[in-house]
Amino acid sequence: MEWDSWGEALRGWFSNEWVWSNIGWSVIRIVLILVLGRLTVYIATKTIADSIMERKSSRLAIQTRRIRTVGKLFSNIVTYVVYFVAGLLILAEFNVNLGPLLAGAGVVGLAIGFGAQSLVKDVITGFFIVVEDQFAIGDVVQTGTFKGTVEMIGMRSTRLKSWTGEVHIIPNGMINEVTNFSLNNSMAVIDISVAYEENIDQAERVIREAVEEVEDVEMVRLPEVLGVHSLGPSEVVIRIIAECRPNTQAAITRKLYAHVKKALDSRGIEIPYPKVVTYHRNGEGGVQNGA
Predict the structure, then answer these.
(1) Is residue 208 over pLDDT 80?
(2) How many CB atoms lie within 10 A of CB 179?
(3) Looking at the whole model, is its pTM more than 0.90?
């Protein structure tokens, strides 16, 4: 008898037109939700891709990979949000009460936020580093006491390699101020000391001829002799500047120093150096000096 009642209930359920009508409309709504979600993702992704292509055409070639990364990041965010909302709407079609589900998810998210505040801060800071284009892989930057070449930019940490070989892994949340040395051309500043006894005009002329002979692909334009920069205790300081490519000023400075030193030596122009003069008192109270 019990099996007969169950069978009768199932036959009544399957033959109920109202039930099948509700199921049919639910299936149609679920398909419509999936189609609209997919269409929304496609339109958003296409819009982001078009805007990225416009930015790529106006940026340097070295920055295109960074722009593609930002575009992919935004596309993923849009995809996750749309599919999350679509999943909630589909659950609602199965008469799932979303209130307790969303409340529980909110509590879990709040607990995770309190327990991983530093991680959340690192991720948010890393996101804005990429979006705001603060620095890129290959740039030479300084943050705090750390200076080096950027080897990796992650959502949680950034890796720098110093010129002496050390690798610094810095959490993004600790990056408060950044100095980027790779955005613009650098300036090599060379100060040449000449003795007071020398002819300043001749010294400037020799220095100018010497620096104009220096050739280097890293120099943007010829070095410029600015003239007398300062008067020291025993020397006249003549300043030279040279505009060069980013982060090449150290090598250019060394090259110019060596070339100018050779030119001054060949012309007999003295570069001052510390000298000590001693006085010897003789037995009769006289003074005899010597160097």
Answers:
(1) yes
(2) 10
(3) no
